Amino acid sequence: MVEKMKAAVMYGPNDIRYEDVDRPVCPEGGFVLKVKAVGLCGSDIRNLTTDSKNGNYPYIYGHEVVGEVCEVYPGIDKYKIGQTIYVYPDAHCLKCENCRSGHNEQCTEIERYTDRPGGFAQYIAYTKKRVDRGATYVLPDGVDPILATLAEPMSSTYACVDNINVTLGDTVAIIGAGPIGIFLSILSKMRGAKKVILIDINQSRLDKASEFNVDYIINSSEKDPVKEVLRLTNNIGAHKVISANPSTAAQKQAILMAKKSGIVVFFGGVPKGELTEIDTNIIHYNGLWIYGHYGANSIQVQKAFELAISKDFPAKKIITHVLPLKDINKALELTKTGEALKVALLPNEK
Ligand SMILES: [Zn+2]
Ligand SMILES: [Zn+2]
Q1: What is the pLDDT of residue 269?
Q2: How far apart are the CA of 257 and the centre of ligand 1, in A?
Q3: What is the per-residue pLDDT across 281-295, written as a single tens digit (0 to 9) for each?
Q4: What domains can you pick out in the chain, each with its CATH number?
Q5: CA distances (Å), 204 to each of 42, 103, 308, in order?
Q6: How many Å lie between the centroid of ligand 1 and the Cα of residue 313?
Q7: How far apart, in whole angstroms, are the C-alpha atoms of residue 121 and residue 346?
């Protein structure tokens, strides 16, 4: 008889049901985790509320997974029963042209987490391919699995500030005060930025963000953020501007608030088909660097994990809510409204 487990199963946009499903069996050469904690990500919210699988339901999402190894295929000695590990959702091949040039995030042979059932469940199985490729990290003793779920959302923000070299004395303007914007703010300050300006249209998100080490917050539904950034920088503009939100209007503003020869990053994707109107003369005459950011390379994934679980990072303050998995719909609501900054779900607790 097939063993059962509880999972949060998506049947369509906004139709998430907590129910019994078959517990995964250990794949040949793979392993199984008992999920200790799984983060709810901005991308999960987008995926769970839209037709993200083009009608191919039911499907289990959840990619910010930390769990305990409970089954290992005979002969595999890389993992030990009882170890708690964080699994980076995508496994890079480390062999293709992009991987070899240091851009694992553009791996052409990537194994994406969406290829297999995810971690909004009591158990999750990983294949031999994952065992071979790694991108799994053992939690040191005493590290809370809930806090370690932040390693994944941290990785792309870590990579971003690393790639654009946020440095001593910089003014960094960040549009979007969700968890990603807050990660970017904290990391910019850690790297020595002098001023961090955080911009959002949602006051409750800004209020949460102001509890972190942010120098200025701007509510862009009340004030023109371009004028405000120029005012705060003596009309110079920000050295680095990061648009971390899905709005084309924000991308347009980002160009206008950058310092001459500054860097503008398009961090967040915008809705498919929407175009941003940009006066390229501003890019040309101001000598701007426009940089699209996506993902993280392998070493950045590892460094982000180390930082997320270190005492230097205010992980406890970022995870504002911890809920049992059965409350996933409540978690979605809390996150959408901005009441929760980041929710961690516990699939094995009632
Ligand atoms: Zn995520
Ligand atoms: Zn590759």
Answers
A1: 84
A2: 28
A3: 999 999 999 999 999
A4: 4-153+296-346 (3.90.180.10), 165-292 (3.40.50.720)
A5: 16, 36, 24
A6: 18
A7: 9
Q: What is the 280 CA–ligand 2 centroid distance (Å)?
A: 34
**Token pair of 256, please?**
């206008």
* DSSP 3-state of 311: coil
User: What is the distance in A from the centroid of ligand 2 to the CA of 30?
Assistant: 20
- Over range 222-226, report the average pLDDT: 98
End-to-end CA distance of the chain: 25
Phi, psi of 63 (to 5 degrees): -130, -5
257, 263 contact by CB (below 8 A): no
Ligand nearest to the backbone CA of 297: 2
Q: Which ligand is nearest to the CA of 104?
A: 2
Judge if the upstream peptide bond of residue 246 is cis by omega within 30 degrees of 0. Answer: no
pLDDT over threshold 90, residue 108: yes
Ligand nearest to the CA of 92: 2
Going from the Cα of 182 to the center of ligand 1, the distance in angstroms, rounded, reads 14
Dihedral sign from CA coordinates of 43, 47, 48, 53: negative
CA distance 35 to 78: 19
Q: Tens digit of pLDDT for each residue in 189-219? A: 999 999 999 999 999 889 989 999 899 999 9
Q: At what angle do helices 179-190 and 151-163 cross, to 10 degrees?
A: 50
Distance from Cα 100 to the centre of ligand 2, integer Å? 7
